[in-house]
Amino acid sequence: GIDGNESAGVIAFSDKLRKIKDYAFSGCSKIAQVTIPYSVTYIGWNAFNCVGLNTVYFNSPICTMYDDGYAPFAGTNLKTVIFGKNVTSIPENVCSNARSLQGATFEGKVTQIGNGAFKNCTGLSEIILTAYFEDEFDYDSLVIGNYNDTVTREKFRFGKKITKTDTAHKVAITVEYSQNAFDEEVELVVE
Question: Which of 110, 155, 170, 178 could disulfide-link 106, Cβ–Cβ 3.0 to 4.6 Å?
Fold first, then answer.
């Protein structure tokens, strides 16, 4: 294991890892970023109770974790969590009690947010959906589990990119559709 005083900084696990045990990295204050691979199916109580943790890349589509006040990222200074393209259902309790969490990005076409996934995430100010344009996303069909009071329609933003060729000018134009759900601006960037 990693000693609590060890300088780890960034942790990216092997794709063969299946379980992260209870308290596995608890107290490791130097861990700033963690990548959870596709292969992980269980994350234990307070597994990442690391005050220095601020970013999590979460790529596991099927992962179990428990709350009871000991959720994996509770007690951290987690600011951002990014769920990979293969995550279509946000796991129960994944960010429960991560009070400093400010933003979540869903790179996949998320259809469900599990019970308590964002419970007590009082700092959560935006949820970015990169797989959708605003008119493609149906908020009312999104299944939002219990204890997710911090997940509201107003916090959703959209950020999908499309590259098209402008034949008249023979240049590629990238449309960055990164807007508030109630905004109608589209920014064109010529690359």
Answer: 110
